[in-house]
Amino acid sequence: MNDIIVAKFGGSSLADANQFQKVKKIVLGDERRRYIVPSAPGKRHDKDYKITDLFYLCHAHVQQGISFDEVFKIIEERYKQIASELNVTLDIGVYLREVKRKIAEGATADYTASRGEYLNGLILADFLGVEFIDASEAILFSRYGYLDSEGTKKAIKDKLKNVKKAVIPGFYGAMPNGEIKTFSRGGSDITGSLIARDMEASLYENWTDVSGFLMADPRIVDNPKPIEKISYKELRELAYMGATVLHEEAIFPAREGGIPINIKNTNAPRDRGTIIVKDNGDKDLGNITGIAGRKDFTVIAIEKAFMNAEIGFGRKVLSVLETYGVSFENMPSGIDTISIVVEDSQIEGKLDKVIEEIKRQCNPDAIQIIPNMALIATVGRGMARTVGTSQKIFTSLAKNNVNVRMIDQGSSEMNIIIGVEAKDFEKAINAIYHAFA
Ligand code: ASP
């Protein structure tokens, strides 16, 4: 591992000149911060636009043969204002003109959207007085549009090995024919993670506008405590259940390289934020790490006497789902029952057919449909090593009059997932949170 920090700054961290100043202070504050990955300018306030959204809009206008001049003007003004307030030496107008010309000529959506990061990267590199390295030379995609992980590793090493400090824009790379390809939305996080992995950095900092993750959604729980440390696996489980700050795919490269990720707040740089690490079996017992959940699930509960002895029953049920292209979330089972939890959006318009087919193929004694369910995951790496976690959860739920309709403890023993009626969702999350916090 090298004594290098890769620092990625999100859109709100680079939304205007004032934010750029904060970023400069942070970058200069630690010599080890050598590779800087910017997003496109984000919102300055609630009603503001994200530059990436505006670029997508430009592309949509061109596709429909409508003038995109007005939208582009907003983009242009934002960059020009940032560049002039920061007194950068480069003439951003030249680059803006070229980008505009290419969009007008029918550039792809990916090329168009990627210019948000490209232009921001040019300004930031100039402002910091460091080299600009175009991500099209460092982040490589296959000709089918998938990330070429090995190729990227080589390209990043090659491009960066002799560079003391550089800005590499996030979100995009290039295919072998040179065509620009972006990651999915929020993908600058992935760029930073890849660079951290390939330069064998000792830390990947992800700078945003919150001081890390909170134990629960602050819109549901009043003033939830921050999470200081979380393992990659726990984060994956919480993110899957709806907690977002970091692009989910950004975890994998850092995890592969065993590099900790520190979520930090550009507006409160002294806050420690959340550090994401490998589960090293630390003695953080007794407590949970976080709670997250989602609504809009349907449970298909199937009952059949002696199901436990019938070989192939589960496979038959699942093959029906497969035939109808329905993916399922959980499948807790009892002796004579099996419950299949599916997201509403998966089963919409197909439920009747799926049920009919399960009846025909599997001959169950009963099938019950339970709509309007919510799933809540309580996640904690200490769970497997602690006695009494589930007792605490269920006692608190009972005290708060929440009817638990389903329980599933993953075999990792790192989470307990419960199903409750959607109307009890907020109450259940609060009950679990207050049992531990
Ligand atoms: N600017 C891109 C987006 O809005 C990528 C990113 O911010 O990470 O999705």
Structural summary, described in words:
By secondary structure, the chain is of the alpha/beta class. It has two domains: 5-277, Carbamate kinase (3-Layer(aba) Sandwich); 290-436, VC0802-like. Helices cover 38% and strands 21% of the residues. The chain has 14 helices and 16 strands. It has helices at residues 17-28, 51-63, 69-86, 92-104, 109-128, 149-160, 188-198, 232-240, 251-256, 313-323, 344-347, 351-362, 389-399, 425-436, and strands at 5-9, 33-38, 131-132, 166-167, 172-174, 180-182, 203-208, 229-231, 261-265, 274-277, 290-303, 328-330, 337-343, 366-379, 404-409, 415-421. The strands form three sheets. It has an eight-stranded mixed beta sheet with strand order 3-4-2-1-7-9-10-8, with helices on both faces. Strands 12-13-11-14-16-15 form a six-stranded antiparallel beta sheet. It has a two-stranded antiparallel ribbon with strand order 5-6. Helix 3 runs antiparallel to helix 4, helix 4 runs antiparallel to helix 5 (109-128) and helix 6 crosses helix 7. It binds aspartic acid. The site of aspartic acid has 13 residues, from helix 7.
Compile the SSE list and pairings.
Layout: E1 5-9, H1 17-28, E2 33-38, H2 51-63, H3 69-86, H4 92-104, H5 109-128, E3 131-132, H6 149-160, E4 166-167, E5 172-174, E6 180-182, H7 188-198, E7 203-208, E8 229-231, H8 232-240, H9 251-256, E9 261-265, E10 274-277, E11 290-303, H10 313-323, E12 328-330, E13 337-343, H11 344-347, H12 351-362, E14 366-379, H13 389-399, E15 404-409, E16 415-421, H14 425-436
Parallel strand pairs: 1-2, 1-7, 2-4, 3-4, 7-9, 8-10
Antiparallel strand pairs: 5-6, 9-10, 11-13, 11-14, 12-13, 14-16, 15-16
Helix pairs in contact: 2-3, 2-5, 3-4, 3-5, 4-5, 6-7, 10-12, 13-14
